User: Which sequence fits this backbone?
């Protein structure tokens, strides 16, 4: 019944695809809507939301993204049920996430992370329509999350909010994930504001932090759009 209700929320032109190759899943996914309480909440209708949840899924099933105000990283266990003619499954594993309070969106933040915290199994339902647009639904026992492979919010208005720094905690390197390519420099400071890795041009989206001692740090990323600071833990 839940799946039938969910299907009614999608455009009639979208068709269910029963046999998509696994490569279909490896993409940058943006949360379009999700079940919250007794309703379906659409991300683009939430006022004052500058960052919608994202999920960047790699070919080794490692996953990283952001929620309503926190970054997260981990991996998925993928269960291929194709021979049984039933939906494939995802089970989130080893998810590390930030602990910032999301203010007005804190309740949605907690609900969004239920599958990650409790490692709940999701049925994977995929859809396609004309062009390159893709749809994926993760159906859980407590509800569902609908993802698309194109930005739901006007990210041009908030480009810096969509920068993700992972893994967190990190050991030897940080990776910057963003649709922006015009980064100018990065700078890393410790909790006392001392510069530990000086300002330098960003030649690569991978930053060597192997020389840092264990502890909390802040990375400031500067682009033509402005700058943003993210915190991370060095193990």
Assistant:
């Amino acid at each position: 019944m839940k799946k039938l209700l969910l299907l009614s929320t999608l455009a009639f032109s979208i068709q269910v695809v029963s046999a998509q190759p696994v490569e279909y899943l490896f993409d940058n996914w943006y949360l379009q809507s999700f079940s919250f309480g007794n309703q379906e909440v659409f991300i683009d209708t939430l006022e004052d939301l500058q960052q919608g949840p994202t999920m960047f899924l790699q070919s080794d099933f490692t996953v990283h993204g952001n929620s309503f105000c926190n970054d997260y990283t981990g991996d998925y266990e993928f269960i291929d049920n194709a021979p049984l003619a039933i939906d494939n499954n995802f089970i989130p594993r080893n998810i590390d996430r930030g602990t910032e309070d999301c203010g007005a969106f804190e309740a949605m933040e907690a609900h969004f992370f239920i599958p990650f915290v409790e490692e709940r199994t999701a049925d994977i339902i995929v859809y396609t329509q004309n062009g390159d647009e893709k749809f994926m639904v993760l159906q859980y026992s407590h509800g569902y999350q609908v993802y698309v492979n194109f930005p739901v919010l006007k990210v041009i208005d908030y480009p810096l909010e969509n920068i993700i720094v992972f893994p967190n905690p990190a050991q030897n390197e940080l990776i910057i994930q963003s649709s922006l390519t015009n980064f100018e420099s990065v700078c890393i400071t410790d909790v006392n504001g001392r510069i530990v890795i000086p300002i330098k041009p960003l030649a690569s989206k991978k930053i060597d932090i192997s020389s840092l001692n264990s502890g909390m740090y802040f990375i400031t990323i500067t682009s033509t759009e402005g700058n943003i600071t993210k915190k991370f833990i060095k193990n």
User: Anything to note?
Assistant: The first helix runs from residue 2 to 7. The chain is about 5% helix and 45% strand. Residues 2-148 form a domain with the Lipocalin fold (CATH 2.40.128.270). The CA atoms of residues 32 and 43 lie 6 Å apart.
